[in-house]
Amino acid sequence: MSHAELTADLRTLLGQWSAPSTEQESLREEYLAHLDAHELATAKSGPPAHFTASCLVIDAAGERVLMTLHKKVGRWLQFGGHLEEGDASVAAGALREALEESGLEAAGLTLLPGPVQLDRHPLGSGFSRCTEHLDLRWVAVAAPGSLPEVSEESDDVAWWPATDLPEGTDDSLRSLVGLARDLPRPDTRCG
Q1: Of 29, 21, 23, 133, whose CA–CA distance to 77 is shortest?
Q2: What pLDDT, on a 0 to 100 scale, did the predictor assign at position 125?
Q3: Could you write out the DSSP letters of every residue in 153-183?
Q4: Which 3 state secondary structure label does DSSP give 151?
Q5: Nearest CA to 174 among 96, 91, 78, 89?
Q6: Which residues lie across from 57 on neighbouring strands?
Q7: Is residue 57 within 8 Å of 102, Cβ to Cβ?
Q8: What's domain 3-182's architecture?
Q9: Residue 106 — φ and ψ, nearest 5°?
Q10: What average pLDDT does the structure give for the chain?
């Protein structure tokens, strides 16, 4: 998709999304206002505040989450990043990021309907002209036996107990994990 098509997809997605709280509704409205204010809102070359798509990977039981030790940030995070013109949709961008950064096979990862959370956060000095991310967060379920691999963007990739996340995990990610555990998951058993 072109950035104009991704912008249209994002506008439709946000227009149809039912925010689960007043805080999330405020973010939804901010995101739509940002889309209205910036022609290239989905492009990395656009305004300093960029839309991103991320994906938290959980196991089928909802007991473990797969996270990346992000090189630039130096903390354990969900997978995610900027939208790209080749993405078929914003959701496809979230899935692409999860696959690229986790090393999991596409057949072993099921993206759940979403997004489940919006998160707007400033970036540290390790980033170039991008100063803020307007993130849309999805959840994907990994098939049993899925083996992650460390990508070039990560220092490590590892499974963490959903109830014992790494030290320094921020509240928005803890909230995302809680939301992910409450979502209905597909049956990924063989047979």
Answers
A1: 133
A2: 56
A3: TEEEEEEEETTSPPTT--HHHHHHHHHHHHS
A4: coil
A5: 78
A6: 66, 140
A7: yes
A8: Alpha-Beta Complex (3.90)
A9: -55, -40
A10: 90
Average pLDDT over residues 10-31: 96
pLDDT at 67: 97
Mean pLDDT value of segment 159-186: 93
Burial class (CB in 10 A: 0-12, 13-18, 19+), 121: exposed
- How many C-beta atoms surround the C-beta of residue 107 within 10 A? 8
Cα 49 to Cα 131: distance, rounded to the nearest angstrom: 6
54 with 97: CB under 8 angstroms?
yes
Tell me the whole-structure pTM to 2 decimals: 0.91
| pLDDT given for residue 79 in this prediction | 96
Give the model's pLDDT for residue 122: 80
- Give me the residue label for tokens 């390790």: 126
